[in-house]
Amino acid sequence: MRDVSEILSEVRGKIAAACQRAGRNPDEVEVLAVTKTHGEDVVREAWEAGLTIVAENKVQEAAWKKPASITGPSWHLIGHLQSNKVRAALELFDFIHSVDSQKLVDRINFIADEIGAQPHILLEVNVSGEKSKSGMPPSAVKPLLEHIQRECPRVTVEGLMTMAPFSENPEDARPYFRQLRELRDKCEAELGIGLPRLSMGMSGDYEVAVEEGATWLRLGTVLFGERPKVKKTLLAPDSDDYAAAEDGSRYGGGLDSYSGAGPTVRILD
Questions:
Q1: 44, 113, 151, 216 - which has most CB atoms within 10 Å?
Q2: How is the chain split into domains, by residue range?
Q3: pTM for this prediction
Q4: What is the tens place of the pLDDT at every residue in 126-144?
Q5: Cα Rg of the chain, angstroms
Q6: Pick the CATH number of 4-226 from 3.30.365.10, 3.10.20.30, 3.20.20.10, 3.40.710.10
Q7: What is the pLDDT of residue 237?
């Protein structure tokens, strides 16, 4: 496989070109190294290539990977956050991109007050309206920002996050990224607050995201290749993931096996 530094140089060249087309400064755009299902060796490769932010989808994956990894990167949670994992998330991550309800932000504020944390978050917005995606509807963003201003003194909202529907054509993502930017601009103007971060754009559409105002790009496959295959493992009946499994099964959650690392119970053939 090609060296991550070489690939990153090409990616940054494309980011710079997209910034030039949009009249932006490339220094406004940061790449997040999405290391989902990769081991701690990939975290080291990303750091040595010059990437300072590691992004993970699951709290339970970061719980073993971060201690095993090189010291230095900032860690961001970009996947869905369950209320029962808020305490662990606040201890592991510097930023949480995926706050999508008043209930969750209230829980974050409560736990942060208990442990003396000052969490920085993004509000996840389901701009496309797809039922399969997490995130609040755009209409809920301003009321939640107002609620946080009034009731959540521990929490700092840095901006918004979204994921465009999958498409082979990156241009199909443009209206969703544009809508998030316009929503951010409207909230800033009406509430008199700053929301400098826009987390949007992944391996297949990051150039369009840059043209539409992205400041954080969540890149995995383009940097590290296809993710290792995941085999589901048997969950213990008393585990959080067993209780929270959406389909009611005993498989899945944080006990997945990949890269020969991580807390597995038993691999199922």
A1: 216
A2: 4-226, 228-269
A3: 0.86
A4: 999 998 888 999 999 999 9
A5: 18
A6: 3.20.20.10
A7: 43
